[in-house]
Write a structure and sequence with these properties.
globular
């Protein structure tokens, strides 16, 4: 015996005949709630009617002949965890506790986020999304190569602020980052200040201080927590190393997936570098050598901006500095100084005239390119262009950042070559800053590089790779170790 949906609904007591109770506001509200519940129960059948697609399929099954000539438009794929009853709630950040100024609240409420740029079904954007969400269908190496091709061809789809739901997962795959429990990250935070805490606090407040997008999405507290956890992680690795300097035996997932060990151009050279080389070094890193050096705050910023949680940013950043560029964060920063020498060498091959001009002005790379080499160009705005450039660097190797800097110099070639000479006659006519440097001198122009144009830099870098000799390119690959 079946019962109607109304009988299965909530029991509605009959209203009392007392006028005083009916006139009571509380009784009136209760009665309205019960009536609303009764109305929802009575409409149960209407809410559970088949959808239009289901009705259409049922009609086609009843009349198969009439549906042979019917062509339906392709239905976009829906994620498995999608719920039709509840619209998905997308949070911009899950870890940022930045305090929003009150004068920005009205603009955020009224402004709608720009929609993602989409192409038709079957485009490279959809292929990239499917590759990340479903994984490789066949050979891992060929899937990785396809992933790199998609990045260099069309890039990762983003909104106007450079945010993408796929980017952090693409980075984790390309870096071959191991899995990490959130509790592991929380345990490092709960240990309190690390030996490098004072130095971290001295740097975090000025991290991308002039970038409004970064300041709006990432708080200083998030940056402090992540860098402090990294310092503890590196401190533990240093303490666990053997007296002879050899690293301890790694766990099974320390290197990520075994299938990816020799798949990435950067990963296959990483075996030559120790997993704890960044915990060794001189006193150049400050009072706590080897666990934090100046510049790590800027190098960490894009990870926090792109990640959806601090734990994701932590595992990606730790993997990057310990496996891809340990020489950059070692106390003496040997990798950075090697990179600066390579900027001069590569520029001399790519454009001998520009290289000779800068050398004649005393402008070697160590004078103007230190920050760009150390931070992988993250010190040059805008941040969305930095993220797009990093997509390329993670796909084909962070060592290509040296060539990216050379390409930026080539894009400034006309201005640099047209700069005034250092003769006394010209100095008498030129305008000077308070520190005595000409407004149009190469030194002044290279103090702050022009805003990044990621696509132009990537295209120029690909063209420059063909001009670099094999032995010099080998130095590029290994200089970060």
């Amino acid at each position: 015996m079946t019962s109607s949906p109304a009988k299965n609904g909530p029991h509605i007591p009959s209203p009392t005949s007392t006028g005083q109770q009916l006139s009571s506001p509380r009784s009136t509200r209760t009665l309205r709630k019960l009536q609303s519940a009764h109305q929802l129960s009575s409409n149960y059948n209407a809410l559970n009617t088949p959808s239009l697609i289901s009705q259409q399929r049922q009609q086609q099954q009843r009349h198969p002949s009439s549906s042979q000539n019917l062509t339906l438009p392709p239905v976009p794929s829906i994620p498995a965890n999608h719920s039709p009853q509840k619209p998905a709630h997308h949070r911009t950040r899950s870890n940022s506790d930045a305090v929003m100024p009150s004068d920005h609240i009205p603009s955020i409420v009224t402004r709608r986020t720009a929609p993602l740029k989409r192409q038709g079904l079957g485009s490279s954007k959809d292929e990239l999304r499917a590759l990340i969400s479903r994984g490789p269908r066949g050979d891992v190496d060929s899937s990785l190569q396809r992933l790199r091709s998609l990045i260099i061809e069309d890039g990762i789809e983003t909104d106007n602020d450079g945010m993408s739901q796929l980017r952090i997962y693409v980075w984790l795959i390309l870096l071959n980052a191991p899995t990490l429990s959130t509790d592991t990250y929380l345990s490092l935070i709960h240990r309190g200040p690390s030996p490098a805490y004072a130095k971290i606090r001295n740097d975090t407040f000025r991290t991308l201080a002039t970038d409004p997008l970064f300041k709006r999405r990432v708080s200083e507290a998030s940056l402090i927590r992540l860098l402090n956890a990294i310092a503890w992680k590196l401190h533990d690795a240093k303490s666990a190393s053997h007296p002879d300097g050899r690293p301890p035996t790694n766990s099974a997932n320390e290197f990520g997936s075994p299938e990816l060990q020799h798949a990435s151009p950067a990963i296959k050279h990483a075996h030559n570098a120790s997993t704890t080389t960044n915990t060794e070094g001189s006193e150049a890193g400050g009072s706590s050598p080897g666990i934090y050096v100046q510049g790590m705050n800027v190098l960490c910023a894009p990870f926090l901006y792109a990640a959806r949680s601090e734990a994701e940013a932590f595992v990606a950043f730790h993997r990057f500095i310990t496996r891809e560029c340990p020489g950059y964060v070692r106390g003496a920063m040997d990798g950075v100084h090697n990179g600066l020498k390579l900027v001069d060498k590569c520029l001399a091959i790519l454009d001998p005239k520009l290289s000779a001009h800068l050398v004649s002005k005393g402008m070697k790379a160590e004078v103007y390119a230190f920050a760009s080499v150390l931070t992988m160009c993250a010190c040059t705005p805008p941040l969305p262009e930095v993220l797009q450039l990093w997509d390329f660097l993670f796909a084909y190797g962070p060592h290509l950042n040296v060539l990216c800097i050379c390409v930026q110099l080539l894009m400034m070639k006309e201005r640099l070559l047209g700069s005034p000479s250092d003769s006394r006659e010209h100095y008498k006519e030129a305008l000077f800053h308070a520190d005595g440097i000409s407004l149009d001198s190469p030194g002044n122009m290279l103090r702050n590089f022009p805003h990044l144009k990621a696509r132009d830099i990537i295209t120029g870098t690909v063209n420059c790779v063909r001009k670099i000799p094999s032995d010099l390119y080998e130095e590029l690959v290994h200089h970060m170790e």
